[in-house]
Structure formats: structure tokens, C-alpha cells
Q: What sequence folds into this?
């Protein structure tokens, strides 16, 4: 009978170091990649083999299958932790199904899938011990042995955190510069989850790919002062060795508060309004700086200016949303028309058959509801108002309540609202989403919105144009002269200086910024270092004329050549990767300014769900687990792509 040796994933790795608590460092025998993990948690090794060496992984799985079949047939059973084999006894359960071993690849992959579910859905870790969940696992894969809760909390999730930290530190070590986004979140009056600070780093790799990683999610204890936030940021910077690399720090333009979703005034749709209203009121209280603990906990705008100084940049997407919110307050009649429109929509979706409603809206009614459940922000609501106006005749035919029918005046008000806010909606959609959006879009957006407001006239929505224009000037007019935004927009190949009405002045601003942030620091001077001796030419090829050494271009020459080229729709990072050799000094600055995002980070969207899905009465997550899950969810792509 053939012998059945112990099959281990570590057979494919060379262990080079073994430390305390079972920590080991190994090199892959095939490619030499260094893998760090605990001896008891080998998912890192299995994942590497599966991703990089499929043939070796298939061989490993086949060996495990052969051994499992031998165990199932009752021939052998290997004792854990030993190299001896003896007749199988305990590998069968119930109806004679052999259980996976702890290091079996399928056992590891199922455990990994459960961990991914917990992370992506921000589930409580104790779900792995719920009776119903274990029954489901037993039905789907009887051979799988459910992992206990402490294994998930103490080994699996910390192991994933270690992988993310290691990958992030290695990537940041190679980055020349980076920008940091601060996201501040408070649970609100109805929640006891406290406050959290998320610090996200954005950097461009050597091959011109933008990457973002949540460096830390930390709770803010006591009074959340600017000094406390600065201390936390300094500690995180030291931990990740980026203290001297931070180019800009992006923060909320308003004082510290909860980032609730801004909605159109009065447009309240069925489903979850009460919870959002509670969060909104909490946001208003904190932002207003009322007396008491909420006011004392407030992080003032001036305080953050003192802490971060010229490195601070206001989040453009957030500032744009505040402009819309403030502008709509100047037109009281909007709220009345929007309230009636919401009542009409709620009545129609509750009484009209879904297929009939889908014909009018061009989509299925459940799809409309799902979209609104995912995003109740003002842009999503404005799209709903637009669809209602386009289907006005259909709504009048199916609604049997005259008190809900929109009057001609109310329709005119809503049409003007849609027309006025359409460019603001477009700008908001441009700078939001999962994709990293550079601040190069901010300046053109402000110019476009200014032009739109100056050319638009309203008859019913009195005051809204003036309110939006005043709010836009107050919050975003400074962008038009800010050297950072001028530089970012000029270095974006789709814009360059085509937007400028004073090209020469903006050229001078650009030249100063480039000289400030390049290694040369200004006009090039003769180097004082001795030049290396010329390489000795082979006699065989001495007949070939030597090419004269090319002289480096000045910043002015680079800029002039760059601006002579026609603007292109090519992605800015692709463009500068291709042109880095032609414009070495401009590309240095481009690699810095394009790290600054125009919008908030993925952790903000995670924070928005916390007040709804992670309240204490709904979930029993420990604070430590909560921080870990937020960290892993935000960095999900670093682990599983």
C-alpha cells in the first residue's frame, strides 16, 4: 500500500525565520516572494499559490484530495502535529462524511469567503456561531468545520490587517509623495458608537497608477479637538513613514460633524426618513457649535487651519454640496412644491401596479425603489423629480386624488429647479464615485457653474439664482486664483490653459509652482559634482559618430512645448506616464497634484452606513472589531481584486 505522507502548503515555501507566537517568514520556492504569517493561519500561502502558480496549486489540491479519499476509505488517519499515520477513526461524522483538515485548501477558502462576507457587509463576527448560519454551512458543505468566533477575531481578521499594513507600507516606501484625506464621523445623538477618524492616503506608483489605502480608523475619545486629530495624524504618519511625503491634507470645509446625506428640502420619500432626519439634526447641532458637550467637541475650521496650514485643502465635492444646500434655502416656495411632489410619488408607487409604473418611467418600479434606497442624496432625488415631470400626463391619469395633482405653477417651479440644478448635478456626479477624481476638475466646474447661473433666468423660483451665485462665490471663488488648482488644471491634458482669460498671468503662476515643487528648485545651474568619465568606445564601432549629449530643457521651455500641443481626452495619468521623459520637471509636479482628490474617500461611504446598520440595538459589535472591519472593508481591493 502506498504511503501517505503529510501534505502541507508549507512544502512549497522555504521558512527563513520563525519568531514568537508562531510567526514565520517564508520565501516561495517558485518565485522567491516573501510571505509573512502565522504557522496556524496558512491562508496567505494558499492564496499566493492560487494567484501566482496555478499548476502548483492544482498539484497541492490533488494531493489533499488523494489523502482525503484515503482517509474516507478508512485506510489511514494522520495525527495532527505529527508525521505518523494510523487507522482513520474521527475523520467521519454522522453519515460518514470526512471533515476537512484545518489546512485543507477548501477549508481555508470557505473560511476566507465567510471572512469576506463579514467584512463587506460589516456583519458581527459572532455570526459564525449562530445556529442558523451553521445549519446553512452544513447543508452547503458537510465536510467544512465552522471556525469558532475567537479564531476569526484573534487570527483571521488580524492576519488580513497585517497583510494590508505590509502591502501599504511597501507601496508608500516607493512613493515620492502622497496626499491624505481626513474623514470625521460622529454617531449622532441616537447612537452610542462615538466618533471615528479615518485617515486615507493617496499616491501614484512608479508606473503612474493612482492608489488609495485607509491607513487607520481610530476612535476619538473625549473632546474631539483639532490638537487631538493632529496628534493622531502625526502618529499614523510616523507608523507608515510618510511624515515628510504628505503634499496636501483634504478635510471637510465645515467644522466637525456627522456627514449626513443632504436632501432636497421637503422631498421625503417612503423608507428610512426618520433615521436620516435624526442624523441631519445631529449634523446641524454640531456644525452650529451649540453650547454643551457637542459644541465643545467641535473641531473648528480655524483650528484645523492652524494645525495643517497651507497644506490644508477643502473637499471640493463637499463644498459643492454645501453651495447647493445654501442656495436652495433662499427660495421658500421650493419646499412646498417638493413636498407635494413627494406625496404624489409615494402615493403612486404604493397604489399603481409595478409593470404599469415601469412603462411610464422606462424601468421597473423595484429598480426605482432600489436606487432610492441606495442613495437618497439630492442628485438622486432630482433625477426622480425629472422623471415625474416627464411622466406628468401619465401620473394625472392614474392618480384619483385631486389634492395630490401638481398645479401648473408647481410644475413650473419644479421645471425651473431641474433646469437650474442640472449643471450642479452633473458636476457632483463627476467628482463622486469609487474612482479617484483629481482636483483638476474643480476649477473648470466652478467656471462652468458661474457661466450657467449668469445665463439662466427664472420666473417662479425667485432668489435661487442669486442664492446659488452668492454661495458659489463665498465657498469656491478662491479656487480660481489658488495656485494649486491652477497648476492641477493646467497640467490636465484635456484642459491645459484653454479655460484661462489671462494666459500670461496663469503661466507665471504655473512656473512658480513647478519651480517650487521640482527637485531643481528653479533655473538649472551647472552641477558642482565631477562628471563621470566618458565610456570607452569599442574600436570595432569607432566609425559611428557619437551623438551629442542632449541639454536639459528649462521649466519655461518644457511648459512652452507642453502648451503648444493640442489638448487631448487621454487620461491624465496615462498622458504623463507617456510624457514623463519629454517633460521631466512638469511630470514631477503632476505626480504630486494628481494625488489630491476632489471628493471624499470610500471610508466616508462606510461611515454613512454605520448609523443605520451598526447601532447598538441592531448589532453587538465590539469597538475593536468595528474598527478592524472598517479598515478591512475600505482596503478590500488590496486583499481581493
A:
Amino acid at each position: 500500500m502506498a504511503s501517505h505522507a503529510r501534505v502541507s502548503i508549507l512544502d512549497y515555501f522555504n521558512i527563513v525565520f520563525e519568531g514568537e507566537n508562531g510567526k514565520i517568514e517564508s520565501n516561495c520556492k517558485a518565485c522567491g516572494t516573501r510571505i509573512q504569517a502565522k504557522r496556524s493561519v496558512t491562508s496567505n500561502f494558499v492564496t499566493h499559490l492560487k494567484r501566482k502558480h496555478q499548476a502548483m496549486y492544482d498539484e497541492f489540491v490533488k494531493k489533499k484530495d488523494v489523502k482525503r479519499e484515503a482517509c474516507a476509505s478508512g485506510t489511514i488517519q494522520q495525527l495532527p502535529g505529527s508525521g505518523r499515520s494510523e487507522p482513520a477513526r474521527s475523520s467521519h461524522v454522522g453519515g460518514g462524511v470526512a471533515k476537512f483538515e484545518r489546512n485543507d485548501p477548501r477549508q481555508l477558502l470557505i473560511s476566507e469567503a465567510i471572512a469576506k462576507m463579514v467584512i463587506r457587509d460589516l456583519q458581527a463576527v459572532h455570526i459564525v456561531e449562530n445556529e442558523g448560519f451553521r445549519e446553512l454551512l452544513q447543508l452547503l458543505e458537510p465536510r467544512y468545520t465552522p471556525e469558532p468566533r475567537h479564531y476569526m477575531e484573534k487570527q483571521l481578521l488580524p492576519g488580513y490587517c497585517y497583510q494590508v499594513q505590509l502591502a501599504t507600507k511597501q507601496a508608500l516606501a516607493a512613493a515620492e509623495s502622497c496626499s491624505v484625506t481626513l474623514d470625521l464621523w460622529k454617531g449622532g445623538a441616537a447612537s452610542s458608537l462615538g466618533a471615528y477618524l479615518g485617515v486615507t492616503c493617496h499616491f501614484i506608483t512608479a508606473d503612474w497608477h493612482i492608489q488609495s489605502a485607509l491607513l487607520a480608523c481610530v476612535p476619538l475619545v473625549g473632546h474631539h479637538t483639532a490638537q487631538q486629530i493632529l496628534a493622531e495624524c502625526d502618529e499614523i504618519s510616523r507608523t507608515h513613514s510618510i511624515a515628510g511625503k504628505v503634499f496636501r491634507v483634504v478635510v471637510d470645509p465645515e467644522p466637525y460633524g456627522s456627514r449626513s446625506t443632504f436632501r432636497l428640502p421637503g422631498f421625503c420619500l417612503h423608507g428610512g426618513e426618520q433615521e436620516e432626519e435624526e442624523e441631519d439634526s445631529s449634523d446641524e447641532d454640531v456644525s452650529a457649535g451649540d453650547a454643551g458637550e457637542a459644541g465643545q467637541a467641535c473641531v473648528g475650521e480655524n483650528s484645523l487651519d492652524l494645525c495643517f496650514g497651507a497644506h490644508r485643502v477643502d473637499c471640493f465635492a463637499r463644498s459643492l454640496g454645501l453651495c447647493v444646500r445654501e442656495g436652495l434655502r433662499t427660495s421658500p416656495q421650493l419646499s412646498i412644491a417638493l413636498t407635494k411632489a413627494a406625496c404624489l410619488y409615494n402615493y403612486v408607487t404604493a397604489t399603481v401596479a409595478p409593470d404599469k409604473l415601469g412603462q411610464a418611467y422606462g424601468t421597473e418600479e423595484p429598480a426605482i425603489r432600489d436606487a432610492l434606497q441606495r442613495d437618497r442624496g439630492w442628485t438622486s432625488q432630482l433625477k426622480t423629480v425629472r422623471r415625474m415631470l416627464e411622466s406628468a400626463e401619465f401620473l394625472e391619469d392614474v392618480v384619483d386624488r385631486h389634492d395630490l395633482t401638481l398645479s401648473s405653477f408647481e410644475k413650473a417651479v419644479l421645471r425651473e429647479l431641474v433646469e437650474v440644478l442640472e449643471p450642479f448635478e452633473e458636476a457632483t456626479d463627476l467628482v463622486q464615485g469609487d474612482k479617484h477624481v483629481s482636483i483638476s476638475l474643480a476649477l473648470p466646474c466652478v467656471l462652468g457653474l458661474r457661466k450657467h447661473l449668469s445665463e439662466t433666468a427664472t420666473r417662479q423660483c425667485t432668489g435661487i439664482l442669486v442664492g446659488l451665485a452668492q454661495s458659489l462665490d463665498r465657498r469656491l471663488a478662491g479656487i480660481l486664483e489658488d495656485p494649486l488648482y491652477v497648476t492641477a488644471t493646467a497640467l490636465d491634458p484635456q484642459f491645459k490653459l484653454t479655460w484661462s482669460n489671462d494666459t500670461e498671468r496663469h503661466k507665471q503662476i504655473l512656473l512658480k509652482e513647478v519651480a517650487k515643487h521640482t527637485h531643481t528648485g528653479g533655473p538649472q545651474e551647472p552641477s558642482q559634482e565631477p562628471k563621470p568619465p566618458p565610456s570607452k568606445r569599442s574600436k570595432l564601432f569607432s566609425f559611428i559618430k557619437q551623438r551629442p549629449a542632449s541639454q536639459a530643457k528649462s521649466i519655461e521651455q518644457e511648459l512652452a512645448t507642453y502648451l503648444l500641443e493640442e489638448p487631448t481626452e487621454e487620461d491624465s495619468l496615462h498622458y504623463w506616464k507617456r510624457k514623463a521623459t519629454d517633460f521631466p520637471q512638469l511630470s514631477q509636479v503632476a505626480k504630486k497634484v494628481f494625488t489630491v482628490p476632489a471628493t471624499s474617500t470610500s471610508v466616508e461611504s462606510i461611515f454613512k452606513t454605520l448609523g443605520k446598520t451598526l447601532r447598538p440595538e441592531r448589532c453587538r459589535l465590539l469597538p475593536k472589531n468595528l474598527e478592524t472591519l472598517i479598515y478591512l472593508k475600505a482596503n478590500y481591493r488590496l486583499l481581493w481584486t
Remarks:
- The longest helix spans residues 149-174.
